[in-house]
């Protein structure tokens, strides 16, 4: 049956045109019930023994997805109209409901009601789209009831008061989520139910979660129409709210409209905004701007206070990256202030699930054994969340996941609901799982559909591969790899052959992952979603399945493997004379660790071919590195920590700073060169759709903390260009062996993040990579662990005419979306890695109180932040006890960046060495921390 749908569309020229689309209706769309006497049951998904079939409305799917993911909820019909509405409103929830529907273990059936002759409904005159969709849901529910007859009870689940009323009038059985879950007699499921808001149905069914005092605490959020108008007129400023990770009472909003960070002080001014929300901010009057000298290190006890008594320093990952100068404690000498503001509206929420533990509330339990509790997230930036639960005793010693539902103006805390239990608090596996969940890392096993894309094992290079005209046989080359010890996912190898003319042929050979990961397959889609492999202290979460990462693609020694090669002819002075790109077959002759490669180069008695190649490559790499530095490339430093892990218990046995050797720098140099060469090649061929990587130039404001610190210690840093800064850092030497490294670490923290982008989205001057002083850069050398490199391999192959460019490269918005996801996943992987280091640092020092030397890196009004070189650890040292309001015996000299006693007996200054005691303490339940105290 053919039905015509007409609608009007406005053209660019302003004309209104009527468009008609054909909409085919069918009568052979089946209901999905295996016991149906009419339909084909070969594709049935509902269970044989179903006594009740649920039909869900859109808001139930949007708001109750945690409940729907529980296996106790089954025999559910998801209408296509509901799926489409969910897709338009919340892509994350859409992906979750699709995952349930495609899970063969769940009894969820997608019914195409919009294409069934008996369930399609036409729009009625004067009817809103929402009302039409609700009517379509009721019509489909009614059809199911008459279609299945008395064999089963069909139940519409809705929390919409009006929809439920109309359903009842039309003879349809309808229930709210809560009443249906109560009928299941599963008290644990009630914890998962998101409570209806006041405009929804049957509030008498809902236990009262509201606090007893109903005074208004927060101002009402402005409606979007008013926000849009205010942004247009410059009254409001839009940006992402970032809460200081050391202190939940201080946040920052980067505003392009005023070109500065707006500081938000206190929960009242944050006005129910969460970390990561896109907010509209109104500037406070200038006389209310907080003076920068008021910043101090926050204490753990502060989190229970109504307002911000102590304010914290910015971390490397929190804005502003500037470290404000300190004024004297208790004094009022005015110094420059940052713009301060308050949140007037939420443009886009960043609510998701949070990990933490429960803190029982001193409130009487509600009816039916319901207890009220406050959930405390492990992430200090997240406010406590009020929940109600029927299983309080079982949850008190557990790490659990809680989702936020709402935040009433009259409540000090947001309201949420329990999602699931992770495990025992303090258990290493539980806490590692928390790290993954908090950083949105997908660690689930690969699905059967993904694994079905892999070639059968054992895999080896075939005669077809060797005779393929697109692939060059390079097995005769003396190829070797140099990686961290124990590396099994080897995606790069090198060769260096002396040529008769005195030059060198140098090759970078990268695992040919795209030979096995084809566009549009489940394997490709999974890799695109994961974006990158994640490296924790004790394990690795792969982007691709292990058969690929550790066997089929890994360039292991003494086995033939497929590669994508970049081969240069270089002079002895490391000048590139020619560049060639080719798919290849290689056979690595050695898989060396950095330590082994360095030992070979350093042992003058060794003259074997591989060692000679290593020395030649190292000689070229040094010249390449020198040339990069002369162009302005920065040599920065980070506090990278290396753990020695017990192979059986996975507990840390030792901890220390990661050692960088010449062998590391040699490999890095050739990887950088390959990435630059490939960037040039793909951009030449595809100027509007190449995936590149840029590093924006830091602003003067971002570099201010570095300049201020340098000035105090008598060091002049020129930051007019990356070259000037690199030269200044080279000259920043002192008697202290750690001095230069500390200055470079401080410089690193002033930098912007490097990001992926689509070349068509920016102009060529914006492609520049500041840190590498390179006009063009991309990622090509690690396709086993980065999806960006997979994309670049496809671009390179297309530029060489090996394969056609996949259609997705013609879809600019889709490419931009992929870039955004890659940046998100890359940053999350970094944060997860750091959190894993923090966790294992706590485990290591739990029974090892230690005295050691540290360096002061930031002065604050109640103490200072120190860096511990031996362990790569940073943390606060308090000089003023919490009980000393105002701390009158200490004075902060803002000019000299010193904190000293009023009587002159003690003084501490920036970069000064101090001896500290490190010990794990637990000032708040379930929140252990490494406490640093001055000796």
Could you walk me through the main structural features you see in this protein, from its secondary elements to its overall organization?
This protein has about 950 residues and is an alpha+beta fold. The chain has five domains: about 180 residues, 3-Layer(aba) Sandwich (Rossmann fold), CATH 3.40.50; about 120 residues, OB fold (Dihydrolipoamide Acetyltransferase, E2P); about 70 residues, OB fold (Dihydrolipoamide Acetyltransferase, E2P); about 300 residues, no CATH class; about 90 residues, OB fold (Dihydrolipoamide Acetyltransferase, E2P) (Beta Barrel), CATH 2.40.50. Helices cover about 30% and strands about 25% of the residues. It is built from 24 helices and 37 strands. The strands form ten sheets. Strands 18, 19, 20, 21, 24 and 25 form a six-stranded mixed sheet that branches. Strand 6, helix 6 and strand 7 form a beta-alpha-beta unit.
Entry summary:
This protein is an alpha+beta fold. It folds into five domains: 2-176, Rossmann fold; 224-348, OB fold (Dihydrolipoamide Acetyltransferase, E2P); 353-425, Beta Barrel (OB fold (Dihydrolipoamide Acetyltransferase, E2P)), CATH 2.40.50.700; 448-691 and 776-829, no CATH class; 849-934, OB fold (Dihydrolipoamide Acetyltransferase, E2P), CATH 2.40.50.140. The radius of gyration is 31 Å and the shape is globular.
């Amino acid at each position: 049956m053919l039905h015509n749908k007409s609608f009007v569309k406005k053209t660019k020229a302003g004309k209104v045109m009527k468009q008609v689309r054909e909409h085919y209706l069918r009568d052979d769309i089946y209901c999905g019930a295996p016991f149906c006497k009419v339909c084909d049951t070969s594709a049935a998904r509902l269970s044989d023994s179903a006594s009740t079939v649920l039909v869900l409305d859109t808001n139930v799917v949007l708001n109750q997805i945690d409940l729907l993911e529980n296996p106790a909820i089954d025999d559910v019909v998801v209408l296509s109209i509901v799926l489409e509405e969910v897709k338009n409103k919340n892509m994350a929830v859409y992906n979750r409901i699709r995952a349930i529907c495609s899970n063969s273990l769940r009894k969820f059936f997608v019914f195409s009601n919009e294409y069934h002759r008996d369930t399609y409904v036409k729009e009625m005159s004067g009817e809103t789209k929402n009302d039409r969709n609700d009517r379509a849901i009721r019509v489909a529910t009614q059809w199911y009831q008459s279609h299945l007859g008395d064999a089963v009870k069909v139940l519409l689940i809705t929390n919409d008061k009006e929809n439920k009323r109309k359903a009842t009038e039309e003879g349809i059985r309808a229930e709210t989520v809560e009443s249906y879950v109560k009928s299941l007699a599963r008290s644990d499921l009630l914890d998962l139910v998101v409570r209806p808001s006041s405009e929804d149905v049957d509030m008498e069914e809902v236990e009262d979660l509201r606090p007893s005092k109903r005074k208004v605490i927060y101002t009402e959020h402005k409606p979007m129409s008013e926000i849009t108008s205010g942004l247009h007129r410059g009254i409001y400023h839009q940006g992402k709210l970032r809460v200081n990770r050391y202190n939940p009472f201080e946040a920052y909003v980067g505003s392009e409209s005023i070109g500065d960070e707006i500081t938000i002080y206190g929960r009242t001014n944050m006005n129910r905004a969460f970390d990561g929300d896109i907010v509209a901010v109104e500037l406070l009057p200038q006389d209310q701007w907080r003076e920068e000298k008021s910043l101090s290190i926050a204490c753990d006890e502060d989190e229970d206070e109504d307002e911000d008594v102590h304010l914290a320093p910015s971390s490397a990952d929190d804005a502003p990256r500037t470290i404000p100068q300190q004024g004297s404690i208790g004094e009022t000498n005015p110094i420059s202030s940052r713009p301060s503001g308050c949140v007037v509206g939420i443009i886009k929420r960043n609510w998701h699930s949070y990990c933490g533990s429960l803190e029982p509330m001193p409130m009487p339990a509600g009816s039916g054994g319901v207890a009220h509790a406050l959930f405390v997230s492990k992430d200090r930036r997240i406010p406590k969340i009020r929940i109600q639960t029927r299983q309080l005793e079982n949850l008190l010693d557990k790490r659990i996941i809680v989702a936020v539902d709402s935040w009433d103006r009259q409540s000090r805390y947001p309201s949420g609901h329990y999602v699931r239990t992770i495990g025992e608090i303090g258990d290493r596996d539980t806490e590692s799982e928390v790290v993954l969940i908090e950083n949105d890392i997908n660690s689930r096993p690969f699905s059967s559909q993904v694994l079905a894309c892999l070639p059968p094992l054992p895999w080896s290079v075939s005669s077809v591969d060797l005779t393929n005209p697109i692939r060059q046989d390079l097995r005769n080359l003396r190829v070797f790899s140099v990686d961290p010890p124990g590396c099994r996912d080897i995606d790069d190898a090198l060769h260096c052959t002396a040529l008769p003319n005195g030059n060198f042929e140098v090759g970078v050979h990268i695992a040919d992952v795209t030979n096995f990961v084809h566009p549009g397959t489940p394997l490709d889609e999974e890799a695109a979603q994961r974006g990158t492999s994640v490296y924790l202290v004790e394990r690795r979460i792969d982007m691709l399945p292990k058969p690929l990462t550790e066997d089929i693609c890994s360039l292991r020694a003494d086995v033939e493997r497929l590669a994508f090669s970049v081969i240069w002819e270089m002079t002895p002075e490391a000048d590139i004379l020619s560049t060639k790109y080719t798919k290849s077959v290689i056979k690595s002759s050695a898989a060396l660790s950095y330590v082994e490669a360095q030992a070979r180069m350093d042992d003058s008695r060794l003259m074997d071919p591989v060692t000679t190649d290593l020395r030649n490559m190292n000689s070229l790499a040094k010249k390449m590195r020198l040339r990069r530095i002369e162009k302005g490339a920065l040599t920065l430093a980070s506090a990278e920590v290396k753990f020695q892990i017990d192979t059986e218990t996975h507990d840390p046995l030792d901890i220390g700073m990661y050692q960088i050797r010449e062998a590391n720098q040699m490999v890095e140099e050739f990887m950088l060169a390959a990435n630059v060469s490939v960037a040039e090649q793909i951009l030449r061929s595809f100027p509007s759709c190449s995936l590149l990587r840029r590093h924006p130039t830091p602003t003067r404001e971002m570099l201010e903390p570095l300049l201020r610190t340098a000035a105090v210690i008598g060091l002049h840093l020129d930051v007019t260009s990356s070259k000037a800064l690199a030269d200044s850092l080279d000259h920043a030497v002192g008697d202290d062996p750690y001095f230069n490294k500390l200055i470079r670490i401080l410089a690193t923290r002033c930098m912007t993040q490097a990001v992926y982008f689509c070349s068509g989205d920016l102009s060529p001057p914006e492609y520049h990579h500041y840190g590498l002083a390179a006009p063009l850069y991309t990622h090509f050398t690690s396709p086993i662990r980065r999806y960006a490199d997979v994309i670049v391999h496809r671009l390179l192959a297309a530029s060489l005419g090996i394969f056609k460019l996949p259609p997705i490269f013609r879809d600019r918005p889709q490419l931009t979306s992929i870039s955004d996801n890659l940046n998100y996943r890359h940053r999350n992987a970094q944060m997860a890695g750091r959190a894993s280091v923090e966790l294992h640092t706590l485990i290591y020092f739990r029974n090892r109180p230690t005295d050691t030397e540290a360096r002061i890196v930031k002065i604050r009004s109640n103490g200072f932040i120190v860096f511990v070189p031996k362990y790569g650890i940073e943390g606060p040292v308090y000089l003023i006890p919490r009980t000393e309001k105002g701390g009158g015996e200490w004075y902060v000299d803002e000019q000299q960046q010193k904190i000293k006693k009023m009587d002159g007996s003690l003084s501490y200054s920036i970069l000064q060495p101090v001896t500290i005691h490190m010990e794990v303490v637990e000032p708040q339940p379930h929140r252990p921390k490494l406490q640093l105290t001055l000796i």
